[in-house]
Target: Large ribosomal subunit protein uL23
Amino acid sequence: MNQERVFKVLVGPHISEKASVLADGKSQFVFKVAVDATKLEIKKAVESLFSVKVDEVRTVNVQGKTKRTARGLGKRNDWKKAYVSLQAGQDLDFTSSAE
Model:
């Protein structure tokens, strides 16, 4: 996988209460990813960007909410998130850069 694709696969970390509990207890991290990203691409992108070993990747397609606007009904975009489990002894730090 080329370096340009690595940066397009991972959109960013998904920060929520559930994601914080998973990160503390089970060494799982949640990312917003590209809709067309595969589990193997996500695994390689996380391993290359953060220098960690990934154990498992689970993905979820999140449907965009339908909202009422002044012009009628509107729909937010669909997106995809990935739950990334790290191998034992591995940890991921978003504040430091991987070099």
Q: What stands out?
A: The chain has one domain: 1-84.
